[in-house]
């Protein structure tokens, strides 16, 4: 039990040191934030503040496969406010793949060049954003028809 706690602490300290080396004065890892949203810990004004920071890019971003938690948090906080921002981010992320002629989704937006040229060009988990894109776009179109 103690060994697991020490490993977790070392990992946390390494992550914080890496963030600081890369110029961040203080950064909250997105994984910690998303788990708080999923458990309902952040609510009310705290949730709104965190979502504003996420939307403005003031928090460490997450990988394509983890964007589901980011989008869930934003849409749970204020669907009307963040719906178009989520759609636009998905367009930007996946447009790079389409422009490169990809027939599957990549692990990251950098494609094969990521991880010392070992990035996956067929990464199923990264496809989750496409579900949001289809659902939100459909809802947006239905709202326009209703007006």
Please tell me about this protein's structure.
- The structure is a single chain.
- Helix 4 crosses helix 6.
- By secondary structure, the protein is mostly helical.
- Residues 7-22 and 24-28 have low confidence and may be disordered.
- The termini are far apart.
- The chain contains six helices and no strands.
Our estimate of the beta-strand percent is: under 5%
Low-confidence stretches: 7-22, 24-28
- Tally the helices: what do you get? 6
Helix content: 55-70%
Structural class label: mainly alpha
**Largest pleated sheet:** none
Quaternary state of this entry equals: single chain
> Could you give the distance between the termini?
59 Å
Q: Kindly provide the radius of gyration, computed on alpha-carbon positions and rounded to a whole number of angstroms.
A: 17 Å
Shape: globular
**Count of DSSP strands:** 0
* Element order: H for helix, E for strand: HHHHHH
Mean pLDDT: 76
């Amino acid at each position: 039990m103690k060994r697991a706690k020490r490993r977790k602490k070392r990992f946390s300290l390494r992550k914080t040191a890496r963030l600081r080396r890369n110029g961040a004065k203080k950064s909250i890892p997105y994984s910690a934030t998303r788990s708080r949203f999923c458990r309902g810990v952040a609510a009310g004004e705290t949730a709104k503040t965190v979502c504003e920071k996420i939307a403005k890019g003031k928090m460490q971003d997450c990988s394509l496969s983890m964007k589901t938690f980011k989008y869930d948090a934003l849409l749970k906080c204020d669907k009307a406010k963040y719906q178009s921002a989520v759609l636009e981010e998905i367009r930007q992320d996946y447009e790079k793949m389409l422009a490169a002629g990809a027939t599957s989704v990549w692990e990251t937006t950098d494609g094969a060049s990521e991880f010392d040229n070992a990035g996956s060009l067929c990464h199923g988990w990264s496809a989750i954003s496409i579900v949001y894109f289809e659902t939100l776009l459909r809802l947006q179109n239905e709202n326009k028809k209703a007006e």
